[in-house]
Every structure is written in C-alpha cells, then in structure tokens.
Write a structure and sequence with these properties.
The chain is mostly beta strands and 257 residues long. The chain has 2 domains: 138 residues, Immunoglobulins (Immunoglobulin-like); 85 residues, Immunoglobulin-like, CATH 2.60.40.10. 7% of the residues lie in helices and 54% in strands. The chain contains 2 helices and 18 strands. The strands form 4 sheets. Strands 1, 3, 5, 6, 8, 10 and 11 form a 7-stranded mixed beta sheet that branches. Strands 2-4-9-7 form a 4-stranded antiparallel beta sheet, with no helix packed on it. It has a 4-stranded antiparallel beta sheet with strand order 15-14-17-18, with no helix packed on it. The N terminus is likely disordered.
C-alpha cells in the first residue's frame, strides 16, 4: 500500500525545490497562524543508524492532518530533481495530530544495498487542508516543508568546490561543482570584485551542491567587465574564500546565409 501511495504521489509531483520550506498556497490574515511545525530540519542516516525520528507538532486549536513523502534527490545545474524511491520509507506516512500535540514519524532506510557513498533524499511534509480549521478561523492554507535526508555521510571534512561565473543567456550565474563524495551546503554567499565592490548572492541559505554534481544560481549584478572575482561563503558551516575566474561569453555560431 505504501509503495502504491509513493507511486501515485510521485507521478503528480513536478517542479524543483527552492527553499527548505515551501508555502504552496495561502489565504490568511497572519502567516503566524500556521499550525504545523516540523523538527528537525535535517536528518542523517548511516549503516549503524538506519532510522531517524521526525517530529510533527500541531500548534493550532483544531486537529490537523499531514502527509510525509520520501523522494530520491539529484541535481542538474539549474534544478533539483525528485524521483520516487522505495529505499527509504516514512512510517506512518499520514498522521492526524490533535491540538497542541505531536506525532513522531519514523524515517527508515529499508534498502539492503550497502552505503558505498552518500545518498541524498528529500522529505516532503504537507499539511492537508482541514475544513474544520477553515470554518473555525477563516483560514485555509497548505504548507509544505522540505527536509533533506543524507544517508551514509561519513566524511566530516568540507568538500572542495570549484567555482566559476558564467553566462546563461543574458544572466550571470555562479556555478559550484562538487567532486567530493559528500554534499556541500552553501550559505551567506557573496562575490568581491577587483574594484572593491561586493555583490551579495545570498544572505542566508543559498542551497546545496550534491556529491559529484554541479549547481548554479543567478547573480544580481556584475559591475563592469571584471576578469576575476573572489567568492566568500559558508560551506557546511565553515568559512570559505576562493578566487574564481569569469568565463568569457561564447559567441553564437555563425550562420551562413
């Protein structure tokens, strides 16, 4: 039954992950009225720790229903990709939580293959709209939390990343390539230019570059025509400063007429 639920949900899933918490639709007077709270905001599994606990709490005044789904997580340069998986399951996948109460959901790696390298997943936790809540407070919302799950991350060192600035159409992009066997979380990213100016790419979490993957993000402004830049960032919580080159704009191929 669980596998059937995963298959049905995965077929309907589209789009990419743009933040750790998504507010998919909301019609409300105050965003603080959101009842569903999720902790922790990240889970780690290992060969000696195949299971972890996710806590869902209802801060509201009426019961709520929530659904937990698990997806394998991979990347292309411009998007995060989610695909159905049976390697990890959530138990129970659907819960009903009383007001001011909490429910524990077990996240279990059931795959019998050894963890030769880090595996990456995402949990999508949806608050299912509740007609009773709408009648009580006039609020109808659907919250979605996205929680990363890393299985088999053994190397505690900060992975070495390769950075570059490149053009995608008319937009400058910061590219980060990760050749390591473990993920890199990038936050508080800025670019310093040779003229002393600085451009903030992200004041908080920018995103992740998964093992042996490349990810890129738009840069708001690139002053003048600099030949290089310096990137400042926190990678897995550790400060990083690196000199990067700016790739030249490639001319479009000539076409004979």
């Amino acid at each position: 039954m669980l596998n059937q639920q995963v298959r049905r949900v995965a077929q309907r899933l589209a789009g990419s992950i743009v933040a750790s918490v998504w507010i998919m639709s909301m019609s409300m007077h105050d965003a603080s009225a959101a009842a569903l709270q999720v902790s922790p905001i990240r889970l780690d599994l290992g060969a000696d720790k195949p299971a972890a606990a996710l806590t869902l709490r209802n801060e509201g005044a009426v019961p709520l229903n929530a659904q937990v789904r698990v997806f394998a997580w991979s990347q292309s340069p411009d998007e995060d990709r989610l695909e159905r998986t049976a390697s990890i399951v959530a138990s129970p996948p659907i819960v009903r939580i009383a007001p001011n109460a909490e429910q524990t959901v077990r996240i279990l790696r059931v795959a019998d293959t050894p963890l030769a390298r880090e595996e990456t997943y995402r949990l999508l936790i949806d608050e299912i709209p509740n007609a009773q809540a709408s009648e009580t407070n006039g609020v109808r919302m659907q919250l979605r939390y996205s929680v990363p799950v890393f299985a088999g991350a053994q190397d505690s060192r900060v992975p070495t990343l390769s950075f570059a600035l490149e053009r995608k159409d008319a937009q400058w992009m910061l590219r980060a390539s990760n050749g390591a066997d473990t993920h890199a979380q990038l936050s508080r990213v800025s670019l310093e230019w040779p003229n002393g100016q600085s451009t903030a790419v992200s004041s908080g979490l920018l995103g992740y570059t998964l093992p042996h993957a490349t990810r890129r993000w738009p840069v708001a402004s690139v002053p003048g025509d600099p030949a290089s830049a310096t990137v400042h960032a926190l990678v897995n919580g550790e400060p990083l400063t690196a000199r990067i080159a700016i790739e030249p704009v490639r001319a479009s191929p000539a076409t004979d007429h």
